[in-house]
Write a structure and sequence with these properties.
Blueprint (H helix, E strand, L loop, with lengths): L2 H17 L1 H11 L5 H33 L3 H20 L9 H8 L5 H10 L2 H11 L6 H26 L1 H42 L6
Helix pairs in contact: 1-7, 1-8, 2-8, 2-9, 3-6, 3-7, 3-8, 4-7, 4-9
């Protein structure tokens, strides 16, 4: 398996697991209650577009932002891993009432753009996605193979958002098929694997930090 394909699969599965569009279905339908399927597709497209734009921005400029604040990538991996572990536990042991905070719900009810808040942010583009994008971009080096790797990450982002769009656009049909219990089961399984991915990021970030500061030999 080529390096680019491995990077694509790793980025795609991590982003899809962190975003977990199935978990957003009840929230999406609640926000768009009494609206037709065409409105569902329009809002789903805009929210996925907003989230993709933010991902591409931090994919291109995330490392530059880190250099401005003097934050090493090893620390980003560890913090991102801790965030993923926390998200995974929250998915595995979901709290009642959905994922949207009270402030986000009130903002939506006051006529705000629900495609941006809360759908694109924080449901699609949250701390876990930010950590994943910056962490993956840190593996890319400025070379011909680095350009191919960057293309693989971009393809993974587009594929993830396309699947997320389809999930939201056909939310009513999906819930009708698998039901709330099916969504709950999938969410818990995904939460377990998200926690495992986060632990992997913490481990690799810790090893990289120890090597960077000369605690262990390279």
């Amino acid at each position: 398996m080529s390096q680019e394909l491995t990077l694509f699969i790793g980025t795609f599965t991590t982003l899809l697991a962190v975003i977990n569009p199935l978990e957003s279905l009840p929230v999406f339908l609640t926000l768009l209650e009494s609206q037709d399927e065409q409105a569902h597709r329009r809002v789903a497209f805009r929210s996925c577009l907003y989230a993709a734009i933010m991902m591409f921005f931090f994919l291109l400029f995330g490392n530059f932002v880190l250099r401005i604040f003097g934050v090493p990538l090893s620390m980003v991996r560890m913090v991102g891993g801790i965030i993923l572990i926390r998200i995974g536990f929250n998915l595995f042991l979901p709290s009642p009432g959905g994922s949207v905070s009270g402030a986000d719900s009130r903002s939506a009810q006051k006529g705000g753009d629900v495609a941006f808040v809360p759908l694109a942010m924080p449901l699609m583009f949250g701390p876990g996605v930010l950590a994943t994008v910056i962490g993956m971009s840190s593996t890319v080096k400025l070379s011909e193979s680095g350009i191919n790797s960057m293309g693989a990450i971009c393809a993974a982002i587009l594929t993830t958002m396309f699947i997320t769009y389809l999930t939201l656009a056909y939310a009513e049909r999906i819930i009708g098929r698998i039901g709330p219990l099916g969504i709950d089961a999938v969410t818990r399984i995904v939460g377990f694997f998200v926690s495992a991915m986060g632990m992997g990021l913490v481990f690799h970030g810790l090893v990289e930090a120890l090597r960077q500061y000369g605690v262990v030999l390279k």
